[in-house]
Amino acid sequence: MSRLRGSTSVIVVLLIAYMLVYFHRTMTGVMKPEIDYYSRYYGVDANLMLAVMSSAYFYAYVVGQFFMGPIVDYYGVKKAGSLMVAILGVATLMVSLPNTIALVVGRALIGLSASIVFLSYMRSSALEFTLGKQGKLTSYALFAGNVSTILATYPLRLMLNSVGLPLTLIALALSTFAISASIYVASRDVGRRGSGMSVVEQAMFLGRIARNPHSWGVGLAAAASYGIGLAYQSSWGQIHLTEVFSLSKEDVSTYLMVLAMVFALTSLPTGYLSDRLKRRKPFLLTANVIAVIAWFLMYVSSIEGDKLLLTASLILVGLSQGVHVVAPTMAKELYDPKISGTAVAFFNIVLFTSIALLQSICPLLNPLTALAVNIAIALIGIAITTLLVKETYRIQH
Questions:
Q1: Which parts of the sequence belong to the Major facilitator superfamily (MFS) profile domain (predicted)?
Q2: Whole-model pTM?
C-alpha cells in the first residue's frame, strides 16, 4: 500500500508540474497586447517579437531534450527533476523584468528547464505502473496540461488585465519553487547512476533510437496533429483571429479556450480506449485525418468570414489533439522502460523542432497561407503514420 501511495504521489506532483509547463507553453497565445506594448516601447516589430518569444521556448525545449532524457534516466527524477523545476522558477522571474533581452532569454531558459518535466513523468509512469495503464497515464498528463491551457486563455487574459504581467509571473515563480521541493520529497527515483553505466553511455541510447524509422514516424505524426494545433494556439492563432475575423483580445482568448477544452475532454477517453482496445496506431492515424478536415474547414471559414464554421474547425483541431495522446506512449513502448526518458526525449526533439519552426514562420505569413501549410502538413502526417509507425501496444520487454 505504501509503495502504491508513493507512486501515486509522485505522479500527482509531476502532473501539477506539467500544468505549469503547459501554462508557459501556451500563455503567449493571449499576450499580444503586452507584446505589442513592449515592441512599441523598444521599437521592435510586434509580429517578429511574438514569433521570437513564442518560438524561443520551443527551440530551447528541443535543445534540452538532447541531454535531459539521458540525465533524468541516469540521475533520476528526485535530483534532476527537482533541480530543473527550481531553475524554471528562476527563469519565470527573469521574464517578469521589463527588458526585451530578459524576456527572450527568460523564455528560452523556461523552455530548457521545462523540458525535463514530461520526461520525468513518462519515466515515473513506466517504472511504477504496468503496460496496461500507460495510455491512461499519458492521457492524464495531457488532460492536466490542457486544463492549464484553458487557464492560460480567457482566465489569464483577465488576470493580465487586472494585475499585469510582472505580478502574474512572480506568482507563477513562487508556485514553481514549491513544486520543485515537492518533487524532491515525493520521488524515489534515483536513476541508474550506481549501475556501472556512465551518463555518456546512457546518452548513446539516443543514437540507437534515432536510427529507428518508427521513432521519427511517431514524432512527425504528432507534429502533424498536435504540433500544428499548438503552434496556432500559442502563437499565430491570435493574429489569424484578429486580422481575419476582427475579434477583440477577449474574444480571441475565448475562441482559443474552446480548442483547449475539447482537447482536455477528449484526451482521457482516448487514453482509456487505447488501453482497453490494446491498440495505439489507429488513434494516431485518426488524429491526422481529423486534422486535415479541421484545417480545411478553418481555411473555408476564413474565406467566407463564417464564425460558426470557425468554431466547428477549432473544435475539430482540439479533437485531433485529444486523439493524438497515444503518441508519447508509442514513442517509449518500443524500448526498455529504463530508457523511457531518452526515448520520449527523441520524440520531443522531432515534435518540438517542428513546432518551433512553425512558430517562427507562420506569424510572418498571410493567415490563409499559414492555414494552407497546416493542411499540407496534416496530409503528410497521414502518409507518415501509415508507412513508418508501428503498433506498439503488444511489444513486451
A1: 10-393
A2: 0.79
